[in-house]
UniProtKB/TrEMBL annotation:
Record carries keyword Metal-binding: no
Statement: the UniProt record of this protein carries the keyword Oxidoreductase: no
Region feature Disordered, mapped onto this chain: 65-87
Keywords: Carbohydrate metabolism, Glycosidase, Hydrolase, Polysaccharide degradation, Signal
This protein's GO CC annotations: extracellular region
CDD domains on file: ChiC_BD, FN3, LPMO_AA10
Gene3D superfamilies: Carbohydrate-binding module superfamily 5/12 (2.10.10.20), chitin-binding protein cbp21 (2.70.50.50), Immunoglobulins (2.60.40.10)
Protein name, as recorded: Fibronectin type-III domain-containing protein
GO biological process: polysaccharide catabolic process
Organism: Carnobacterium divergens DSM 20623
GO molecular function, one term: hydrolase activity, hydrolyzing O-glycosyl compounds
Pfam (any one): LPMO_10
Length: 488
């Protein structure tokens, strides 16, 4: 990536049961919150309205596959669009009318994403099934048409992103909306499908209030922090947000079913209530009140952090694997994590993610994590997970670049006999057509590509002639713009 946000998010509220939290340096993850996606409706926070969603019941944000749908060949294949082709999410590809549907109308529709790790964005793309499609056949490209593209190149979004699309006026009945969030500095995107029942005609006025939130509890209490969670409300249309009341006053709102109150002081008693609101402004009754007292700030800290949970391997190649886990809690503050491979310490980090490189192909490794605080207190070991690297591909003597390998800034590769250098973090982006790679072989040129961005000094071949870029250029034909000069 061109810029990394190095501030670690040490205490991130998870959404529902088992959703994985990441710091902003990690790969992005996200799912569609409203109208609730097929994946999100399979979680506890989504009401468990869909029963067979595989891994999505714990991590609806992890449907990650190559970007460029539907034109890019290795983007989600027909019949695997709902799962993205990701292992463990296959149950969501079963296509029938049994999926829980959200009532919507034609015309303007707000789509809200919940991002568990905001990241540099390329674009947001939305598709809907065509009128007359067969809802009992696997979802295919030929059944979809694009209805919206939101270009957001290079911007890092907020954790909650709401965009407006338009549902065509000729749609009625059961349809599927496909949303794709394309990331700018990786070759991947995050995919979500939404099952909707499209109605025509005037929208009926919503006067029904949501049910009151239940099971409000404090999951963690420290002298400077209280972590709250509750069971989601239900509504005839859908929950818009929850308001958090402290001592009778609204202090914040959230779309989640969890909240961290960081504005508390030691040795103080607080009274919390939660209420739900829908899009029409109907307000539920307050939840049952919860009284929480913060402890005194310890003079000597002897309390160990909680055990890290949610450890997972991700994007494993023949030589590397990416680990990520949920944040631990502590009575003062977690200051870092120690990573163990096969029982030996390999890394200390403040992040919630680590890429272990230079591994052996087709080999199984065991990983665990320990959290620690500034006083040296250490948590118990996390669960031990096993990760098996992939088979090593046979090398091409003219190419060392591998689409499955993560490359960092200034790392070099060979591709078709030419040497390239990475300008920032990258994976899966082909060196001769992606602007993340800089050609550094002396006096070498490659064919000009309209989608690639070039910088001053880059050389290309166009219609048999050699050109040199004078300055930054993209989608400008070398023979028709001042940004290129003919090499003599």
């Amino acid at each position: 990536m061109k810029m990394k946000l190095m501030k670690p998010l040490m205490l991130v509220a998870t959404i529902g049961v088992g959703l994985v939290a990441f710091n902003q340096e990690s790969l992005a993850h996200g799912y569609i919150l409203q109208p609730e996606s097929r994946a999100y409706k399979g979680t506890a926070s989504g009401g468990n309205l869909n029963k067979e969603v595989g891994r999505a019941q714990w991590e609806p944000q992890s449907i990650e596959a190559p970007k460029g749908f539907p034109s890019v060949a290795n983007s989600p294949q027909d019949g695997k669009i709902a799962s993205g082709g990701v292992s463990g999410f296959e149950p969501m590809d079963v296509q029938n009318t049994n999926w829980h549907q959200t009532d919507i109308n034609t015309g303007k529709l707000d789509i809200t994403w919940q991002l568990t790790a905001p990241h540099s964005t390329h674009s947001w793309n939305y598709f809907i099934t065509k009128q007359g499609w067969n809802p009992n056949e696997p979802l295919k490209r030929e059944n979809l048409e694009k209805i919206s593209t939101k270009n957001d190149f290079g911007k890092i979004p907020e954790k909650i992103v709401t965009q407006q699309i338009t549902i065509p006026s000729d749609r009625t009945g059961y349809h599927v909306i496909v949303g794709a969030w394309d990331i700018s500095d990786t070759d991947f995107a995050f995919y979500q499908v939404i099952d909707v029942n499209v109605k025509n005609g005037p929208v009926e006025e919503d006067t029904q209030a949501p049910t009151s939130p239940t099971e409000l509890k404090a999951n963690h209490t420290a002298f400077n922090q209280i972590k709250l969670s509750w069971k989601s409300s239900t509504d005839n249309v859908g929950i818009s947000k929850y308001e958090i009341l402290r001592d009778g006053k609204v202090i914040d709102s959230t779309k989640d079913t969890a909240f961290d109150d960081l504005n508390v002081t030691e040795k103080t008693t607080y009274r919390y209530e939660i209420r739900a609101l829908d899009a029409a402004g109907n307000v539920s009754k307050n939840s049952k009140a919860l009284t929480v007292k913060t402890p005194e700030k310890p003079l000597i800290d002897t309390e160990k952090p909680s055990t890290p949970e949610g450890l997972m391997g991700h994007m494993t190649t023949a030589t590397s694997t990416m680990l990520h886990w949920n944040a631990s809690t502590d009575n003062v503050a977690v200051t870092g994590y120690e990573i163990y491979r096969d029982g030996k310490s390999i890394k200390v980090t403040t992040d919630l993610m680590y890429t272990d490189k230079e591994l052996k192909a087709n080999t199984t490794y065991k990983y665990s994590i320990v959290a620690f605080d500034a006083a040296g207190n250490r948590s118990a070991n996390s669960q031990i997970i096993s990760v098996t690297t992939k088979e090593q591909e046979k090398p091409d003597p003219s190419t060392t670049w591998n689409a499955n390998t993560v490359y960092l800034y200034n790392e070099k590769v060979m591709y078709n006999g030419l040497e390239y250098k990475a300008r920032w973090w990258t994976q899966g982006e082909q060196p001769d057509i992606s602007d993340v790679w800089q050609l550094i072989t002396p006096n070498a040129s490659v064919d000009w590509n309209s989608s690639k961005a070039y910088t001053g000094g880059d050389k290309v071949v166009y219609q048999g002639n050699n050109y040199i870029a004078k300055w930054w250029s993209q989608n400008n034909r070398p023979d028709q713009t001042d940004s290129w000069m003919l090499e003599k």
